[in-house]
Specification:
It holds the Pfam family bPH_11. This protein has two helices and nine strands, in the order H-E-E-E-E-E-E-E-E-E-H. Strand 8 and strand 9 form a beta hairpin.
């Protein structure tokens, strides 16, 4: 490679790195602004009760995220609700607990749950036919959201759907 080609390649690489950095910065700014717009809609999440009783169903898998109802692709960006993580979904008499790795647990009170069903996609995540467990519930602020969970063993969905009916 001659020196002219080398210099041109280095300049091209530098411009590419700068463009990537700008694109990443713009994406992060968009995510922060989305979270700022949603703060009032989401409000405060319910606190996890001290005594929740005995677990009825325990399912391990992936917490996909929360979306505003009815738009399955309008992801909630407030706090850490928008980040995917491994999780354990546990059903109690009083409600459902989503224990996420590296994030705060989510408590869904029984009286807030409006529907539990399986979906093909939620929050930008598309799975096999009926591969995602979707829990539709109402926040204390009155906003309805849908929490998505993909189980390691999808045969366990039958227990969740049976419990909800």
């Amino acid at each position: 490679m001659n020196s002219g080609t080398l210099v041109g390649s280095l300049i091209f690489a530098a411009v590419l790195v700068v463009l990537l950095a700008v694109a990443i910065q713009l994406m992060m700014r968009g995510w922060r602004r989305r979270a700022e717009r949603q703060v009032e809609l989401v409000g405060d999440l319910p606190e996890v009760p001290v005594d929740v009783g005995a677990a009825e169903i325990i399912t391990k898998g992936l917490y996909i995220g929360c979306t505003f109802t009815p738009a399955w692709n309008d992801r909630v960006a407030v706090g850490d609700l928008g980040y995917r993580s491994k999780a354990v979904l546990t059903r109690y008499t009083e409600g459902i607990l989503v224990e996420r790795i590296g994030a705060q647990p989510i408590w869904i009170p029984q009286e807030s749950i409006t529907d539990i069903r399986t979906e093909r996609g939620i929050a930008g995540k598309v799975a096999a036919r009926n591969g995602i467990l979707a829990i539709k519930w109402r926040l204390p602020s009155g906003t309805e959201i849908c929490t998505g969970f993909r189980a390691n063993n999808r045969d366990e969905y039958a227990k969740w759907l049976e419990e909800s009916s």
